[in-house]
Amino acid sequence: MPSIHWRKRPLAVALSCIAVFSVAIILLLRSTGTNIDPKRFAHDVFRKKPGPTAAQLPPEDGKRAKAALISLVRNSEIDQLKQSMTELEAVFNHKFNYPWIFFNDEPFDENFKKVTRELTNAEIQYEQIPKEHWEVPSWINKDLMYASFDKLASENVQYSKMLSYHQMCRWNSGMFYKHPALDDYKWYWRVEPNVHFYCDIDYDVFRFMEKNNKTYGFTINLYDSPQSLPTLWPTTEEYIDAHPEYLAPDNSMEWLTDATNRPHHNFLAHGYSACHFWSNFEIADLDFWRGDAYDKYFEYLDKSGGFFYERWGDAPVHSIGVGLFADKSQVHYFDDIGYNHVPFVNCPDLPGKCRGCEPNEFFRGVGLEKENCMPVWNKMMEKAN
Ligand SMILES: Nc1nc2c(ncn2[C@@H]2O[C@H](COP(=O)(O)OP(=O)(O)OP(=O)(O)O)[C@@H](O)[C@H]2O)c(=O)[nH]1
Ligand SMILES: [Mg+2]
User: What's a Gene Ontology MF term here (predicted)?
Assistant: First the structure.
C-alpha cells in the first residue's frame, strides 16, 4: 500500500499549491478591482444611490398582492396606450408581472389585442362593460340633459357636450369596481393612454399599500373647474347629513373645504375647495369603493343626476369620497413615482432613477402653477403630523 501512498502525495501537494496560488491570484485581482464584472459594478453603484426605504423594499417572501393594472380605453387609442404600457412595464411591471385588465364599452379588436400582448409577459384580460353599467340611466331626463350640455358649454366646461365623457366619468366614479372581472382583486393601478412614467420603481407598490394600511395613492393634486360641479358639494352635504356615521374620524375635510387658497373656487363650488386627486393615476383599494360609505354615496349622487346635468368628474367624486370616508393617514402621496398626463407632472428628485422630467416640475405650458392644490394638502398633513 505504501507505493500508492507515495504516488498520491505529489498529486496532493500539486493540488494544494494550485489552490493556494488561485486564492492568492483572486485576492490580488480583487484588491486591484480588475475582476469586477462591469455590469455588476454598474449595478452596485446604482444601488448605492437613494432608493426605497426599507419598508418599501420588495418582500423576501415573494408574495404578491391581489392586484391588477387596469385601463378603460378605446380601440382607437392603441398607440397612446402602447406608450403608457411600455413605460409602466419598463419602470415597474416587468419586475412584478401584475396582470393587465382592459375595459371598453365596445369589444376590443384584434389589433388592440395583438399590440398589447407584445408589450408584457403578464396575463391580459379584455373586458367589455355591461350595457347597464354604461348607458345613461333611466331616471335621466334627456331633454334636460342636452339643455344642460349647452349651458355647461357656454361656461367653457371642457368636454361637456360629449355624452361619452359623462358616461366615462360616471363609470369611473361608481361602476368600474362592480365589474365582475375585478371580483377577485383587492388592489388596482389605473392607467390611461398617453401618460408617462419617468422613474424606476423597485418595490411592490401594492404590497406597500397593504403593509402600510393605505387606501388610496395619488401623484397629482389639482383644482377642478368649479363650473363643472356646482351642486356636487351641496349634494354631498345632504348625504353626510343623512349618514354622519360614515365620516372617518380623521377625515380630510380641511382640504375639501379650504377657502383660503382659491376662495372664488370655493364660492362657485358652494363650499367645496375643488381640490382633487387627479384620478387618471390611482393606486387604490377596491374594497374602499365597494364599502357602504362610498358605494351608497355614489348611488346618492347618481340618483341626483349630476353626472349628466352637470359634468361631475370621477376625480372630484373619488376625492371627496376618500377625503370624507377614509382617514387622511390612509391616503398616500407617491412622491417617488414620476408621472405625466398632459399638462401636469409629478417629478421626484431621485438622481439616477428618473429620465425625462425635471425634479419638482409640476406642469408643462404656461401659468398653471395656481392649479396645484398640493400646498393645501401639505398644510393639512403638516398639522396632522
Ligand atoms: N372605451 C372607452 N374609453 C373611454 C371613453 N371615453 C373615455 N375613455 C377612456 O377614459 C379615460 C379618460 O378619458 P380621457 O378622454 O383621457 O379624459 P381626460 O383625461 O379627462 O381628458 P384628456 O385631458 O383629453 O386626456 C381614458 O383612458 C380614455 O381612454 C369611451 O367612450 N369609451
Ligand atoms: Mg386622459
Answer: alpha-1,2-mannosyltransferase activity
